[in-house]
TrEMBL record, chains A, B:
Protein name in the entry: Winged helix-turn-helix transcriptional regulator
Lineage per the UniProt record: Bacteria, Pseudomonadati, Pseudomonadota, Alphaproteobacteria, Hyphomicrobiales
Signal peptide segment: none
Keyword Transcription regulation appears in the UniProt entry: yes
Pfam name, any one: HxlR
Length: 121, 121
DNA sequence: CAGCATCCGCTATGATACTG
DNA sequence: CAGTATCATAGCGGATGCTG
């Protein structure tokens, strides 16, 4: 059996919603390179709030995409890493990242063209 | 020059926001298979409202990812198709779609495990 | 058919303060 | 360090009605 993202009742949609989340994408991108601690993630993802990072990590953990490892040091140490499932997704997500970083200038140009043409005013 | 999605001030982030939009992803998936009219898109994307579809298509058009072609029939006919830029993105998006549709059951299972383990109650 | 304008509730997100 | 809890708010997105 295979899901269908076009069906609003298909669980696939939920998955897509998760994947189609800005913060999730960024976390997956970072963890793809190796495990990171909470504060490291927060520092590297510009603009994310502590609340959103926690929320995102919980969701990813619940989905079985990310592992959460607690080391009872003082103060406590928590490390996040990819599960095999998460790693399998990371490839596709990485492609999005690469695309965004290499084509954003085309988009910016297209927007300027659009805004200054007939549509404007 | 290449962007950096981790920088909140980089335009790449805007691109990511667009890509990380549920409706945009679904529209791109459908248009990747060929041009479609407004009502066809609306019918095929379960759960989307007319407002959201219009909004999504405008954004995609502005970003230079989608072409909008008006044929002055009666009643009017509007066809949406992919631009080359959009097509280049569709590949990456398609990978996400495939992943979602093939792995959603793993995620559902992971969620159940998570919900019924120590985290619950 | 394709789309715009309006009203409006919901919830997603950010800011802030507190804990172990 | 790694969270949890609470509050306030912007804007997403649905429902409805109108147009060419």
């Amino acid at each position: 059996m295979r899901g269908n993202v076009l069906d609003p009742n298909c669980p696939t949609r939920k998955v897509l919603d998760r994947v189609a989340d800005k913060w999730s994408v960024l976390v997956l991108i970072l963890l793809a390179d190796g495990p990171l601690r909470f504060s490291q993630l927060k520092r590297q993802i510009g603009g994310i709030s502590q609340k959103m990072l926690t929320q995102t990590l919980r969701k990813l953990e619940r989905d079985g995409l990310v592992n959460r490892t607690v080391t009872p040091t003082v103060p406590i140490t928590v490390e996040y890493s990819m599960t095999p499932l998460g790693r399998s997704l990371a490839g596709a997500v990485g492609a999005i990242r690469t695309w965004a970083e290499t084509n954003f200038d085309h988009i910016v140009t297209a927007q300027q063209t659009y805004d200054t043409s007939a549509q404007a005013g």
